[in-house]
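Re: beginner question about structure tokens

> Can someone show what the tokenized structure looks like for a real chain? I only ever see the sequence side.

Sure, here's an example I had lying around. Input first:
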Amino acid sequence: MVTAEFIKQELFSLADEEKRQFLPYFFKTGEGQYGYGDKFIGVVVPKQRALVKYHKSLDISQIELLLNDEYHECRATGLFFLVEQMKEAKRDEAAQRTIYDFYIANHQRINNWDLVDL
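And the corresponding structure tokens:
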């Protein structure tokens, strides 16, 4: 079974130092800015999406761990997994409701515009 820790390790293996330095500026993480305190690994969205597509599924308990991670890319990748689960649940209202309730219960960690857009 794939775990949140495994996904996090995969993200670190995809890190780009130049992006890691740029992303805090782009997402306004300075004191008093809307993304204050966010930390970045340096992984671009296409690589995060490819990682999710490769693994296809992640247990919701593991997604919750990613959403509670200190790194922005872990939270984003967790949301990408959630989006994929919602696509799979397109004809299952109970499954959609479970995903929706999970999202609402964890919304406090969805703290930046790009995460909300997912």
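Each token stands for a local structural state, so reading them left to right follows the chain. Residues 72-88 form the longest helix (17 residues).
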